[in-house]
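step=predict obj=biotin--[biotin carboxyl-carrier protein] ligase n=295
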Amino acid sequence: MAPSDTPGSPGTPNGPGGRWSDLERPPLVATALRRALVRPGGLWTELDVVLATGSTNTDLVARATAGAPEGVVLIAEEQTAGRGRLDRAWTAPPRSGLFFSVLLRPGAAGVPAERWGWLPLLAGVATAGALSRTAGVDTALKWPNDLLVTVDGQERKFGGILAERTGDAVVVGVGLNVSLRAEELPVPTAGSLALAGAAHTDRDPLLRAVLRSIEEWYGEWRRFEGDPGPCGLQETYAAGCATLGRRVRAELPGGGERVGEAVAVDGDGRLVLATEGGVQEPVSAGDIVHLRPAS
């Protein structure tokens, strides 16, 4: 893996596959990002940009296992084996999106392990808020880990979050479609910030805004020992969650499903469904299918 601020493979800087082969999609510059984000006393301690890798999450999990400190950020211009939940593939052209992972060690700040499940939801809140402000596009959250925008009047997934625990560390990966054109979408129902009418698709300020937002939310969450109530995380997530108020189908791991109205996200980050018969049932994991628009 070669840092993107150092010319190298694949291709020559101006040749096919090179750093400047698509002038509408300039490369990220690691040195500039480090100057802006890595500072004494801040969360982010190391930041690297690579031209291509299989998966930033896989790479950072390995570094976490080897003892890397909290606050490492790994960004890839292209992922050749990017993964979403349930090991689903995540593909996009080089430099068309933001693909990065961060290494967190919440236990060192006294956050109980049973609250670590809030980290992907925290990353969703932080990312959606930062993009709404910076790109000027309304974004919404789909429980548990998708980010949505509206394209041609339809909700489209344009981003996802994947959290993986290794020992006392949690690696949180974020993948976002930024400048993808319609013909480049992996599936017709996907979206991108560009297709949603973003004010701009310059990835540098977008990335800075997202990482600063994650740092702010994570700091508050740690300050309250991971309690999502007093730090405002639970309320903010619910306010931005497009799943709440809708009739949904929860497709559960290992088979089986539940159908009901999504009425709340509880203190453990679970989606609470009001099923037929008036029973409220929490769902801790699964694929959620929206069956009707929010009321």
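step=describe
The longest helix spans residues 203-223.
step=end
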